[in-house]
Amino acid sequence: MWNKRKEEEYPPKAPATPAAQTSPNKENPSMSTNPAPSHHPTESRGPAVIGKSVMIKGQIFSREDLTIDGEIDGSVELHEHRLTVGPNGKLQAGVKAREVVVLGTIHGNVEASDKIDIRKDAKLVGDIKTARIVIEDGAYFKGSIDIARPEAPRVAAAPAKPQLTGATAASTASSAAPAPAEVR
Amino acid sequence: MLKDRLGIEPFSPSLHSAPKKGAAPQNRASNGLDQFFAGLQDQQGLSILDFSGASQANISFITSMGHRIYSNDALRTMEEAFGGDGDFIANQSDPERASRFLRENLEFAERSFDGALIWDTLQFLAPPLLQDTVDRLYRILRPGSALLAFFHADEKAQSAPLYTYRIVESKIMSLTPRHQVRPVQYFNNRSLEKLFQNFSSVKFFLTRDHLREVIVRR
Question: Predicted ipTM?
Answer without folding.
Answer: 0.85
